[in-house]
Protein 1
Amino acid sequence: MIKKYWIEDLAQAEGQKVEVEGWLHRVRKLGKLAFILIKDKTGIVQGVITGKPPFLAEISGEQAVRVTGTVTPSKQQPLGVEIQVEEIEVLGPVLQELPFELNQAEISAGLEHVLDHRVLSLRHPKTASVFKIQSGIIKAFRQFLDKEKFTEIHTPKIVATGTEGGSELFEIKYFDQKAYLAQSPQFYKQMAVGSGLQRVYEVGPVYRAEPHNTSRHLSELISLDLEMGFISGLEDILKLEEEMLRYIFAYLEEYHSQDLALFDATLPEVKTIPRLTIKEIGSILEKEYKKPLEILDLDSESERLISQYVKKEMGSDFLFATHYGKDARPMYTQPSAHDSDVTESFDMIFRGLKMNSGAQRVHEYDVLVNNIKEKGLDPAEFASYLEIFQFGMPPHGGYAIGVERLVIKILNLSNVREAVLFPRDRFRLTP
RNA sequence: GGAGCUGUAGUGUAGAGGCCUAACAUGCCUGCCUGUCACGCAGGAGACCGAGGGUUCGAAUCCCUUCAGCUCCGCCA
């Protein structure tokens, strides 16, 4: 029995006859000698075919193949070895011309075309790396929070009402009732905190029916959500996020440096992240960029500008913008004790783009009911959410990160859709 | 929802009233080549220039309609 190897491990098999499975990345025929590049998910190896064996006529790029041969040393090859090919079995043939070239350093095709043929674009090592890195971020997120005694939960994505009344919801048919796709696990994760799980997180999809059509919006995105009970204030949440980011970037550096190397990207250094209140940001923007804030909220241009400023003046890629205005935040956000105009809320801005919002939440029943009324909503509709607030709800808070945005800012990609396996946007529903 | 821009072989681009029987690169097909590594060389196929209408002696090129896409804004992660 011939032993099967992952390509990245082939150096250990020098001198042995091995079997490798993968896809043909490139075929170079030079008369009675041919070179092939075989890729699997771990790497690429060169195969050498001497003479003109019968299988040579059958092979071409992107076929799924099983290659048998002997591993020999080769100084010029990245792995230090190559395979003297004896046999190639085509497991999955290619039946038509490829929609774009997969063996160049970059896929040179428009994003729309790439996404129309998503499965094939994922065959490209660089595209695949985007998702290996995304997987690494999520794994690090889980590891860090597990260590901090959080419990991973899964909340319903089919819900009866919206959470904040703000962003638009997809309506769906639920037997004979009307239902919606959840735009956030917000209520459920708070309920879980009050339930005694105390610290919870969730990795899952959220849905936004906003008809926006930009390079940073999706209709379905993966939200990294967490909520923590018994906090003394907003600062506890900020500290948690700071440590979490440090953990995630250290993890990427350790386990994904090869994936990262394919991109024009440098991992950020997470020192103490500057905290600036919206009011402070307002005066900086006015002084530095002649752009005063009209309300206690940031538009995307302000986010870009203040992010530039913080990078230049404080040397940080990150910023916590804190204490947003009451009108700019949902009803479950804790109002500030020292200033009734603002809330104990924050956004984390990374390289000019908002990554997440978070806050200390209201935990007092009366305040919450009152806030609901102030936003023009009916407390009766929130009965199932409100129940736990009458049975020992601790002070708590949390945040939610859009993982796609984090990925594009780490990798210096220009469109969030590049960071989704099968994106759903304003117009795209397939593949 | 609003504004601006773009649609030309499989892919990426050039052409901006007559030079177009539409060019270049790459991919594809055929042949040659025993150390290539973006292999090379020779040959070949492949586009009614997004669609429909109009202006003009003449339209890929100008105008209108329509469809598709991109960017930005609003809003959000």
Protein 2
Amino acid sequence: MFKGRKKTIVRMSQLVVPTLREDPREAEVVSHKLLLRAGFIRRLAAGIYTYLPLGFRVLNNVSNVVRQEMDKAGAQEVFMPSLLPAELWKETGRWDMYGKELFRIKDRHERDFCLGPTHEEVITDLVRNAIRSYRNLPVNLYQIQTKFRDEIRPRFGLMRGREFMMKDAYSFHTSQEDLEKEYQNMYKTYCSIFERLGLKYRVVEADSGLIGGGFSQEFMVLADTGEEELFVCPKCDYAASRESAGVGEFRVADSQSTGTSKNALKEVHTSGTKTIEEVAAFLKTSPDKTIKTLIYETETGPVVALVRGDHALNEAKLKRVLGVQDLRLASEKVIEKVTKAPLGFSGPVGLKGIKIVADNCVPLIENGITGANKKDHHIMDVSYGRDYKADLIGDIRFALCSDVCPKCKKGKFDVLRGIEVGHIFKLGTKYSEKMKCVYLDENNQEKTMIMGCYGIGIGRTAQAAVEQSFDKDGIVWPMTLAPYKVAIIPVNSSIPEQMEVAEKIYSQGRGAGVAILLDDRELRAGVKLKDIDLIGIPIKVIIGKALKDGKVEIKLRKNGEVKLVPEDRAMDEIKALLA
RNA sequence: CGGAGCAUGGCUCAGUUUGGUAGAGCGCCUGCUUCGGGAGCAGGAGACCGUGGGUUCAAAUCCCGCUGCUCCGACCA
């Protein structure tokens, strides 16, 4: 591949690997610290990184596996622009919907552009022009490319950057069944990708967010420090992200009496109490007796959402239940207009002319407590049906680990942590319809294409691997990801015999196409060994004392295992380890 | 965007309270001695103390503005 090049630098004395002895202040999580310390990446600005030679090699290792598996699955690689005209985004409405996360810029003619955070619009535009017949469907096009998102809070190095490498694929179909087939094909492809990369992962049901569409699944690399919570049922195969985990059973809170006698409504003065906790404490009861009332604004007007006081409302679920796209907490002004009372005293009783959505658990509350829609007042002994009604009742809260699996209704959730590295979506016609991406079927009928979309965070995957595999000395790369598989370390570079053997094995390795590194630096053994371990090279060939007997050491990073072999057998041994 | 904090050689930090000629460790360069898990000695280079203004005889230090970065909450691969 690089035949034209005279030599690639794989001598440590020449390689740019600025390792650091101390943890950089900017890093918080282990993987970020290690990538910085071991000289893989450097920060340029918040969430924007340079990949140094080692880092870039790892990135390419991920990309290559992804590319091979995608090609094998029948997808075709393309390369789309990063700089995108606003018109396309206006066509789907996402120019307005995407919000502040979209990097927007103007050209010299004051025309609007953005830096691509994802490419549904671009690919759909391409396909609607390039493909007109059912004969040319289905297709799956993908690219590996830099994406831009003006994240609210860039974090943890490559985990959440503002500029990051991503593989995104888009498939186009003539039927739902065909999409289903490709979705399964991609599911399998993703499994083999993450298996080849040597990662422990789980697949969970997920919310599809801004990308939209219906069903989607996330691939999570398991790591205790992961940002995501996965709700996994121990009794069946159900697994979901925190965002989308369902609630299997609606029970009354433990503290509620089983008695059903309804007391009469009572208004109480609760001056100075605003939060649920304050109100519950003031009235000497627990938060699960209260009804939390939240006012939201949507594109179809304000709505009132009710959840039990000890539950957290899940906006993604609320969006789904309401069937709205735009959802945000109402301003105090709107709250006052809707409830005629200041923030902190809202309640469903007596509200008119506004849609009310209640969580499944809310109607079960007897003699509950909620705001009186009157400053400094709450009402007690509120019961559903008698005192208020909801227009919609559904699952709109976050699941808790005490909740029951919605699938088998038996297991209580285990909560694991993970890092989202892949996401597959069934988009349906969300984009193709708006953008008139159509084809002619065999009956000369115009039909809208059905789409799927499949992403993998390349840099994030690389960093997730570190998060999953490190020790006190540094990174322990899985073989596939390691920037170099083998490092040759002459213990004392001032002994000519050691250097000779080192050079010999090095050139044998290069001749055999092994990704091999020679630590030819004139440094003490300890420094070289520490550096190579920090970098995480899987196999070390240590040339030292044993050379007197014509032997070298082969030591594994993973478990510290050492094997003494005759120097002329070293290469065979390495090849066996790599096979 | 709300809350907290930080900004001083390449890296990690001290110095700021109580203004008075900019420090340490690591790294880097030179030489000597060392040489199997971050060596020792000697010599040396390297900083307009984030930025703009103000107070003062005098500001890294006090005051005001700005910017950048990190962390905690709502978004995403």
